[in-house]
Structure formats: structure tokens, C-alpha cells
Fold this protein.
Amino acid sequence: MLTIHHLGLSQSERIVWLAEEMELDYAFKRYERRADNRLAPDDYKALHPMGIAPVITDGDLVLGESGAIIDYMVATYPGGEALVPSPGNSDFADHLFWFHFANGTFMTNGMMQLMLTMAEAQNPMPGQFVADRTEKAWAMVEQRLGEAAYFGGAMLSTADIMMGYGLTTARLSRGTSIEAYPNIRAYLQRIGERPAYARAMAKAEPGMPPKLD
């Protein structure tokens, strides 16, 4: 059986959301972060050589990486075809861009910004470089969500599953405000109204309201 191993406050919430959108029968196991350093506990790190979230198991298969897991689940289980525009669909290219932009650029900028904050006192130039890239990325997101209801176009797609975490839970560690981004705020309200998203977040982060504003 498909098992989603969710590390609290991590990118693995994407996989829970996807499973709920696909209405899959799956096993769910939640892991708390360590109290001393906020990293994954030893039993989570033992699941996969990288030792980071997300991870799924499916029979003998152990798979990491958000994009790989999403592609695997959509290709293996029913219900995913509605979340990926076909190559003949006019939204196909936009869907592909935002699906890969999520971790290739958007989340990468955020991680670099977080790490460089600690070193900025010694050399502010790298921090400014990352800040500029981050500002451009958020501006692109805001523009896109003024053009289309979802990242992939007219309908929710796996591009939204990938992008959602960076716009919501990931902001908890960086304190990023979305006050200046009305299109993003409106988009997150649409996401929050989806029953599958509500179910996923109730499982992934029980007792914590989704960060939708």
C-alpha cells in the first residue's frame, strides 16, 4: 500500500494534498521534528538516503523528491489524469513551467535567503543578490495569478500542488508577508476552499490553521 511519510512543517504536505485530490486509499504516518534542532528525527532520516522530506513507500519502493513522487503517483494511481494537462492542451506549457519553477527557483531562492541571513553581516552582497531573485520570483507569481485562476491555467494541476507549500507553510520560517500581493491572497483563498486541501492540512498539521493570508 502507498504510505505517505509526512515530516511536520515540511514539503511533504504537498504529497498529502495530492493524495486527497486524487481520493486515494493510502496510509499516513506523521513524524515530529526534533526539539533540539528542528530537523527530522532519526527514524525519518532512515527512510531514504537523503534523509529529508518528502518520502513515500509503496511496497518495496522508497521514493523521495516532491516532483518525482508526484509524477509517480499520477502515473501509477487513478485520479491524477485530471491534474495534469495533456500535451495538446493550451495550458500544458504553463503547467510544466510552474511545476518545475516551484523547486527549481521559488523554493531554492527561499532556502538561499534563509541561509544567507546568518552570514550577511560579513558580506551583504550575496544576500542582496538572493533578495533580488526572490523579489522577481514573487512578482512573477503575482502576475501569473492575475492572468489565470491556477498556475497551470484554468484548472487546478500538480503545478499548484508544487507551488502551494512555498506560498503557505514555508512562510512560517521566513516571515514573508503577502499583504502587497492581492492576486496571491485571492488564489490562496480559492485553495483553502478546496475540501481536499482542508483534509490534507488537517492530517498534515493538526491544530494549525493553514497559512492562507
Q: What stands out?
A: The longest helix spans residues 92-117. The chain has a mean pLDDT of 93. The first strand starts at residue 2 and ends at 7. The chain has two domains: 2-83, 92-197.
